[in-house]
Amino acid sequence: MHLITEDEGQDLVESDSPWLGSDALIFRPVAVAAMSDLLVRHGELLPLECKGADLMIFNVTTVLDALDEEASTVMRFSTGRIMMIRNYAFLPRVIGDADIFKIPNLRASPTFVSARFVDTWTANDLRGLEFMKVWPVE
C-alpha cells in the first residue's frame, strides 16, 4: 500500500481513516483503539504493508440480507443483477443491533454503519470519514 500525501503540489491533511473506498475501510491505530469494541464484533482488522504508516484494513464479516428491494430504488443489469442502488431501504428486523454491515446484493457492497458508530467516531474526534445518512430517508 502506498499513501498519497500530496495532490497537485498541495499537502493533504492526515486522516485517521485513509480513503480507499466505502467497501474497504482503512484505519490508523488511534481509530482502531477508539472503535475497537464495534469493529471486533463485525469484522477483522488486517495489517497493511505501508512504508511510513501503521495501517489496518477492516474486513467486514457481518453480511446481512437486509435490503428491502421493493422499497429501495434499484437499477439492474439486463440479467436482473443489481447495478446500483439510488435510495436504500432496509429491513430493521434483519439489521437488529448491528453497528457495521454489508449487503450481499452488490458485488462490492459499501460499508454501512449505525448512528452508534458515527457517534463514537465523532466523540473521539477522529478525522477522515464523512457519513451520509442513507436510511431512513426523511
Care to describe what's here?
- The protein has helices spanning 29-42, 92-95, 115-123, and strands at residues 6-7, 10-11, 25-27, 43-48, 55-60, 73-76, 82-87, 100-101, 112-113.
- Strand 4 and strand 5 form a beta hairpin.
- It contains three helices and nine strands; from the N terminus they run E-E-E-H-E-E-E-E-H-E-E-H.
- 20% of the residues lie in helices and 24% in strands.
- The model has no long low-confidence stretch (mean pLDDT 92).
- The chain has two domains: 1-61, no CATH class; 62-116, no CATH class.
- The longest helix is centred in the N-terminal third of the chain and has 14 residues, at 29-42.
Tell me the layout of helices and strands.
Layout: E1 6-7, E2 10-11, E3 25-27, H1 29-42, E4 43-48, E5 55-60, E6 73-76, E7 82-87, H2 92-95, E8 100-101, E9 112-113, H3 115-123
Antiparallel strand pairs: 1-2, 3-5, 4-5, 6-7, 8-9
